[in-house]
């Protein structure tokens, strides 16, 4: 002791410096894992520090690119440690120093990376000790990151499997969907409600977890069409909704109860409800559909739809890779509901989608660039999905034209409520006028603006107002747009020429 103070020799200073280094390593590891810790080591030692495999391949590319001589030293050191089972190796050659040691401290450990440091000059006295101290923290970080990567891959595999099940269901292939789903849990219910949750990823996950916990045997999966949506298939006997605290930042739309083979209809209903939820303070809406047009028309609609879709159903693929009638029907349904995003839903290239749509147009004699033909095809598909019985003696009566169906008395009663909210005295007449003109002009903004002598931006402002009043998703491909056109056509026919 001198003047009451302890002596501080070189050994004491060295131990204190080492303790400080270990604390800094732990802080760097907690901050972000392997990458910050390697960066701290490189700054502290003046070396290029990286993780490598037993063959010397870099697992964590360094911030400073290695030259050929440095790379050769790292490869040589990694092979020495791996082949000879050494605890560490230091190589001085050509004015360079390279130190390599196993991250977990066990020579020859399988799958464990190696820690390598290479720098100019002879080996500094403290470099091997620094790397040895860092190896423990690096081992923990590497194992944790490895587990996280494996969990991420498992989540991706699970999500893709569930998306495959959903795709089969959307195409009506229930048996195949059940076979694929057999490896997962829970069992697919016979009758489902489809939930669509929109919002930030973390918030969607919270809402999906809450809904799945409240409704047993619920299937949750990413939406194959919209990246910001999560889908849930819940048993029809459950009717749950997220509470206001859970639903923060998200909107939820839910379908009516539909048979499992009619999941595509449930999805369309949930998307419809989601549009309503966006304008609701509760951020939640269930599908409150007007009476279905196909059910309103009855057997005559079934006879018309059967004749309308007959060319598609009769189509046979000429080559194994070509689509048959079933695939064309699924393509038409997907495209009508999601437009170009059908490529994501059907897992096909956009050129394949274009070719299929061209074939559908040719077989049915339609122009799918026009809203009337889109609406006719949508009505035929929804009528076929409804499974309505046809007339018992349909061969004795000619198949009606679509306009003849829309002119039936019951259809007018169906059509008028489709515009009811726009006819409210509190709503400016220009909103209904803009929507009607837009429907007459194939739902195109520019021709609508020209016809009304207004700017396209003004049309774009009025249409969302109509969408909010009708609580229907008019600005994206959906059944609501086609129903709105059919309702407008029925009103036009009732007014006469």
Automatic annotation (TrEMBL):
Residues 328-381, 433-480 form the PucR C-terminal helix-turn-helix domain. InterPro entries: CdaR-like_regulators, PucR_C-HTH_dom, PucR_C-HTH_sf. Pfam families: HTH_30. It comes from the Bacteria. This is PucR C-terminal helix-turn-helix domain-containing protein.
């Amino acid at each position: 002791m001198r003047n009451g103070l302890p002596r501080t020799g070189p050994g004491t200073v060295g131990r204190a410096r080492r303790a400080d280094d270990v604390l800094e390593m732990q802080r760097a590891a907690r901050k972000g894992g392997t990458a910050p810790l390697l960066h701290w080591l490189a700054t502290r030692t003046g070396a290029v520090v990286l993780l490598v495999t037993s063959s010397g391949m870099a697992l964590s590319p360094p911030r400073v690119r290695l030259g050929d001589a440095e790379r050769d030293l790292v490869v040589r050191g990694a092979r020495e440690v791996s082949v000879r089972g050494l605890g560490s190796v230091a190589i001085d050659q050509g004015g360079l120093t390279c130190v390599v040691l196993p991250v977990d401290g066990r020579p020859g450990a399988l799958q464990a990376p190696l820690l390598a440091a290479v720098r100019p000059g002879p080996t500094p006295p403290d470099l091997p000790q620094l790397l040895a101290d860092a190896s423990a923290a690096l081992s923990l970080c590497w194992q944790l990151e490895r587990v996280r990567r494996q969990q991420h891959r498992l989540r991706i595999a699970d999500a893709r499997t569930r998306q495959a099940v959903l795709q089969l269901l959307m195409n009506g292939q229930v048996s195949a969907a059940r076979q694929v789903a057999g490896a997962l849990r829970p069992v697919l219910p016979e009758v489902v409600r489809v939930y669509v949750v929109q919002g930030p990823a973390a918030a969607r996950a919270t809402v999906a977890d809450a809904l799945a916990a409240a409704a047993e045997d619920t299937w949750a999966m990413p939406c194959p069409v919209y990246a910001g949506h999560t889908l849930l298939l819940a048993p029809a006997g459950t009717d749950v909704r997220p509470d206001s605290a859970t639903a923060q930042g998200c909107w939820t739309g839910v379908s009516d109860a539909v048979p499992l083979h009619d999941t595509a209809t449930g999805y369309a209903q949930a998307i419809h409800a989601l549009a309503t939820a966006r304008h609701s303070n509760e951020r939640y809406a269930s599908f409150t559909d007007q009476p279905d047009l196909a059910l309103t028309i009855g057997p005559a609609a079934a006879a018309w739809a059967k004749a309308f879709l007959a060319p598609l159903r009769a189509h046979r693929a000429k080559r194994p890779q070509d689509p048959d009638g079933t695939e064309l029907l699924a393509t038409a349904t997907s495209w009508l509901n999601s437009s170009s995003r059908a490529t994501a839903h059907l897992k096909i290239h956009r050129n394949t989608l274009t070719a299929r749509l061209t074939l559908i147009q040719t077989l049915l004699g339609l122009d799918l660039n026009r809203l009337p033909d889109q609406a006719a095809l949508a009505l035929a598909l929804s009528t076929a999905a409804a499974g309505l019985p046809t007339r018992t003696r349909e061969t004795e009566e000619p198949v009606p034209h679509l306009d003849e169906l829309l002119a039936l008395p019951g259809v007018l009663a169906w059509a008028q409520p489709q515009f009811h909210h726009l006819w409210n005295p509190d709503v400016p007449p220009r909103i209904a006028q803009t929507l009607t003109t837009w429907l007459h002009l194939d739902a195109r903004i520019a021709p609508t603006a020209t016809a009304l002598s207004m700017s396209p931006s003004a049309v774009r402002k009025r249409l969302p107002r109509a969408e909010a009043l009708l609580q229907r998703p008019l600005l994206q491909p959906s059944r609501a747009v086609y129903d709105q056109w059919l309702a407008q056509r029925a009103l036009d026919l009732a007014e006469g020429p």
